[in-house]
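TICKET: design request
STATUS: open
ATTACHED STRUCTURE:
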C-alpha cells in the first residue's frame, strides 16, 4: 500500500505495510451456519496468538451469502435467469420473477432485520402484506397453530426465513443446483470413496456461486498476502468449495502453501492415497490442528529440506506420504489459548427460524461464542461412535477457572454473552465447578451444551446449572430400549433418562434428545416400544425437543470395526483412495428400517407441540406394526419414584440465596419461656420465612454466610455437621426439619 505524507515543505512517498497482512490466512469455506461462525478458525487463531504468529481469519460462507442476498446480488441473479431464453421455469420461479421488484425493494431491509439491526421491521413483516410470498409460504396455514404463541420478533424471523428460502429455491432451479444455506455441493463430499466425481466437477468452469466466492477470496488473499493458507473443512457440504478455493490460490498464487484440516478430513480422509488431491493442497492434517500447523509454519518460514511433521499427508517423490515423525506431544488444553473471533464479521450474521424444533432453532437463531469444557469424551464407550479417533478417545478437561477466564475474555472481545459448549459430552463434575465459578464472579452468561443423561444430574445440580445461566441441554437417548442401550454401551437406562430429564425440566432447563432407529439387531417391536417411551416422555412434560436419525455405520466405531459382534455384515468393502468413513452393511434381521422414518418424525413433530398423545401408535404408520409392550405408566412411575435422601459426607453444600433479616421473640409454654427467631429471606420472585430457636437460628445465619455461592471455598456436609455439633446436638434432626426443608426449596443445594 502506498501512502502520501504531507509535510510543510515536502512530499514523501512511503510504503506502509498493509495492516491486514499476516503469515497465515485461515478460512471456513461455504457453507456452515448463518447465525454464528463455525469456531475452528477462531480456535486456531487463538492458538497462533500464543505463539506470536500473525494470522487473519475469514468465514467466506457468510460473505458469499451477504453478497448474494443484497439488492445488487439479487439484481444480477434475476438478470442471469432472464438470460436463459427458452428455458421453461416452474410456476414458482415464474412467480418470483414476476415479483422481482418486490424482492429488490425488501431484501436489504430483511437482511438488516435478521442481523438484529432493524427490529422495528418485525411489525411490517408480521402484517403479511410486506414480503413477496412464493411456495415456502404455502406451509404457513399448517403451521399457524405451531407458531401462534410466538412473539412478534420470532414470527417475523420465521416469515423472513421463508422469504429467504423462496429465493434459495429460485437459485437452485435457475442458477446453481448445488446451492444450500448450510451446505454447498454436499453430494460431492458425502461418502466420496473415489475422487473422480469431485475432480471432474473441479475441472468444469466456475459456477455462478463459485465466481462470487473466488472474487471474495481474491480480495482476501491480496489484502493478507499469506505464506500459508489454511482451509478448515468441518462437513461434506464445505468440501467442494474448499477445493475451489485451493484451486484458485494454487493457480494464481503458486508461492502460497495450502493446507486442509477439520472434521471432514479427520473422519473421512484417514486412508487418503489419491495423488490428484495434491494438485490442490500441499498438506492435509488430521486431528488436533495446533501442533501440525505450528510445524507447517516452521517448515515454510525456516526453509531447508528437512522438516518434522505431525499427522500430515503430503506428496513426497510423487507419492502420497503420511508423516507423523515429530515426537512432540500435542498441546494441553490449558495451553491452546482463548478462541479469537477478531476479523470475523460478527455483526453481520443472520438469525433465522427455519423449523419449530426448539433445539434446532437454537442452532440457527442468535450469536453463540463456542467453547469447550473438555477435549474428547469422558465416557468414550458408545459403540456407534468414533471412539477409536483422538477427538473422542483423548479426554482432557480444562480447569473451571480457566474456562470462566475464557468466557470473560470472549464477552469483552465480542460483546456477546451467549455460549455454546461444543463438547462431545460435558462432564457433570466440571459443569458444577464452572457454574459455581460463574456465580462467584457474578457474571451474566447464557449457555447450553451436550451431555450424557447420567444419574449425576441430580435435582440440585440442575438448579445450580440453571442459576449460572444454563438454558438447555441435548443428550443421546438413542434407542429407548434397555437391551439396545446396553448393546450400545450407553451406560444409562430409560428409567434413569426419565429422572434426569425431569430434574432438568423442573429446574427450567430445556431438554433435547437425540433418537436413533435401525441400530443393528433392533427388532420392529423395539422400534415401536422406543416410540412409546418417547411418547410418554413428551406427555409427562420432561422432554421438550427431539430428533430421530437412522443408524449409520462408520469405519472408526466399534460397530464398523467389529461388525460380527453386532449381528451385521459389511458389504464388499472398497477402501477408497479418497474418503473412507460411511460403511454399507447388511443387517441379518432383514428389517427395512427406512419405512419407519416418516411415522417416527411425524409423531415427534406433534408430540413436541403437546398434541396427539392419545393417538394409537399404529396411526402414525401406513403398514401394520405390533402393539407396544411398554406399560402405559412406565415413565410416570419412573419420574415419581421415591428418591434416596441420604446425603454423602463429601457432598458440597451451597447456598444460592442472600442474607436474611432477623427478628427475635420469646415463646412461652407452661411457665417455661425460650427465645425464638424468625428469618425472612427475599429471592428474585418472592419472600419467605422460617422459624427456629435462637441457638439454631444464629448458627444457621453463620453457616449460610460460610456456604454462600459467593465464597471461594465450599464446605462439605461432614464439615457443616462438625460445625453444628461444636455447640449443639442432634444435627440430623435439625437437617431434616421443616426450616431446612424450606431452605432446600429455595436454593440450599446438596451437590
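STATUS: resolved
RESOLUTION: sequence designed for all positions
ATTACHED SEQUENCE:
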Amino acid at each position: 500500500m502506498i501512502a502520501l505524507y504531507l509535510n510543510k515543505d515536502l512530499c514523501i512517498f512511503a510504503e506502509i505495510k498493509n495492516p491486514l497482512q499476516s503469515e497465515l490466512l485461515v478460512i471456513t469455506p461455504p457453507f456452515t451456519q448463518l447465525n454464528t461462525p463455525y469456531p475452528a478458525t477462531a480456535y486456531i487463531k487463538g492458538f497462533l496468538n500464543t505463539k506470536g504468529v500473525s494470522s487473519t481469519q475469514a468465514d467466506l460462507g457468510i460473505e458469499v451469502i451477504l453478497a448474494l442476498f443484497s439488492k445488487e446480488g439479487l439484481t444480477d441473479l434475476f438478470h442471469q435467469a432472464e438470460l436463459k431464453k427458452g428455458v421453461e421455469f416452474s410456476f414458482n420461479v415464474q412467480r418470483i420473477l414476476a415479483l422481482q421488484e418486490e424482492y429488490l425493494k425488501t431484501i436489504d431491509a430483511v437482511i438488516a432485520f435478521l442481523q438484529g439491526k432493524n427490529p422495528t421491521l418485525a411489525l411490517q413483516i408480521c402484517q403479511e402484506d410486506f414480503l413477496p410470498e412464493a411456495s415456502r409460504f404455502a406451509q404457513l396455514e399448517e403451521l399457524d397453530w405451531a407458531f401462534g404463541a410466538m412473539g412478534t420478533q420470532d414470527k417475523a424471523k420465521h416469515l423472513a426465513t421463508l422469504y429467504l428460502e423462496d429465493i434459495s429455491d429460485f437459485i437452485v432451479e435457475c442458477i446453481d443446483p448445488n446451492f444450500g444455506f448450510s451446505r454447498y455441493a454436499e453430494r460431492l463430499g458425502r461418502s466420496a470413496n473415489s475422487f473422480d466425481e469431485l475432480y471432474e466437477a473441479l475441472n468444469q468452469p466456475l459456477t455462478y456461486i463459485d465466481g462470487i466466492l473466488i472474487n471474495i477470496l481474491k480480495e482476501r488473499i491480496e489484502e493478507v498476502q499469506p505464506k500459508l493458507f489454511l482451509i478448515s473443512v468441518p462437513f461434506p457440504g464445505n468440501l467442494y468449495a474448499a477445493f475451489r478455493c485451493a484451486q484458485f490460490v494454487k493457480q494464481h498464487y503458486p508461492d502460497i502453501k495450502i493446507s486442509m484440516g477439520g472434521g471432514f478430513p479427520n473422519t473421512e480422509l484417514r486412508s487418503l492415497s489419491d495423488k490428484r488431491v495434491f494438485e490442490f493442497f500441499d498438506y492435509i492434517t488430521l486431528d488436533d490442528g495446533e501442533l501440525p500447523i505450528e510445524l507447517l509454519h516452521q517448515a515454510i518460514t525456516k526453509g531447508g529440506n528437512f522438516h518434522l511433521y505431525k499427522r500430515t499427508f503430503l506428496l513426497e517423490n510423487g507419492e502420497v506420504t503420511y508423516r507423523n515423525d515429530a515426537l512432540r506431544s500435542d498441546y494441553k488444553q490449558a495451553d491452546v489459548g482463548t478462541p479469537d473471533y477478531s476479523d470475523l464479521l460478527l455483526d453481520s450474521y443472520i438469525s433465522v427460524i427455519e423449523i419449530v424444533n426448539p433445539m434446532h432453532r437454537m442452532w440457527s437463531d442468535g450469536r453463540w461464542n463456542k467453547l469447550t469444557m473438555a477435549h474428547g469424551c469422558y465416557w468414550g464407550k458408545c459403540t456407534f461412535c468414533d471412539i477409536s479417533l483422538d477427538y473422542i478417545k483423548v479426554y482432557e478437561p480444562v480447569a473451571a477457572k480457566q474456562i470462566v477466564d475464557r468466557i470473560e475474555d470472549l464477552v469483552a472481545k465480542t460483546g456477546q454473552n451467549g455460549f455454546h459448549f461444543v463438547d462431545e459430552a460435558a462432564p457433570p463434575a466440571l459443569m458444577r465447578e464452572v457454574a459455581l465459578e460463574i456465580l462467584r464472579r457474578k457474571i451474566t452468561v447464557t449457555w447450553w451444551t451436550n451431555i450424557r443423561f447420567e444419574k449425576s444430574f441430580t435435582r440440585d445440580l440442575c438448579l445450580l446449572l440453571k442459576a449460572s445461566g444454563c438454558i438447555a441441554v441435548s443428550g443421546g437417548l438413542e434407542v429407548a430400549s434397555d437391551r439396545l442401550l446396553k448393546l450400545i454401551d450407553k451406560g444409562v437406562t430409560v428409567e434413569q433418562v426419565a429422572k434426569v430429564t425431569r430434574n432438568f425440566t423442573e429446574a427450567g432447563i430445556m431438554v433435547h434428545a437425540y433418537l436413533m432407529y435401525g441400530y443393528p439387531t433392533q427388532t420392529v417391536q423395539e422400534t415401536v416400544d422406543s416410540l412409546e417411551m418417547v411418547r410418554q416422555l413428551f406427555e409427562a412434560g420432561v422432554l421438550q425437543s427431539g430428533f430421530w436419525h437412522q443408524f449409520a455405520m462408520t469405519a472408526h466405531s466399534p460397530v464398523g470395526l467389529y461388525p460380527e459382534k453386532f449381528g451385521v455384515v459389511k458389504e464388499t468393502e472398497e477402501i477408497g483412495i479418497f474418503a473412507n468413513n460411511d460403511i454399507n452393511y447388511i443387517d441379518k434381521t432383514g428389517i427395512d428400517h427406512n419405512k419407519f422414518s416418516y411415522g417416527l418424525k411425524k409423531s415427534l413433530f406433534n408430540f413436541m407441540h403437546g398434541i396427539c398423545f392419545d393417538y394409537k401408535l399404529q396411526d402414525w404408520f401406513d403398514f401394520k406394526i405390533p402393539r407396544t409392550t411398554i406399560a402405559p405408566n412406565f415413565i410416570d412411575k419412573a419420574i415419581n419414584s421415591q428418591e434416596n435422601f441420604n446425603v454423602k459426607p463429601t457432598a458440597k453444600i451451597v447456598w444460592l440465596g442472600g442474607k436474611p433479616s432477623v427478628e427475635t421473640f420469646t415463646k412461652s409454654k407452661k411457665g417455661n419461656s425460650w427465645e425464638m427467631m424468625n428469618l425472612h429471606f427475599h429471592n428474585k420472585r418472592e419472600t419467605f420465612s422460617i422459624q427456629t430457636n435462637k441457638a439454631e437460628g444464629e448458627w444457621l445465619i453463620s453457616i449460610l454466610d460460610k456456604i454462600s455461592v459467593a465464597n471461594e471455598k465450599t464446605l462439605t456436609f461432614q464439615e457443616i455437621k462438625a460445625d453444628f455439633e461444636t455447640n449443639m446436638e442432634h444435627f440430623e434432626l435439625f437437617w431434616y426439619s421443616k426450616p431446612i426443608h424450606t431452605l432446600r426449596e429455595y436454593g440450599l443445594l446438596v451437590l
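CLOSING REMARK: The chain is about 40% helix and 15% strand. The first strand starts at residue 2 and ends at 6.
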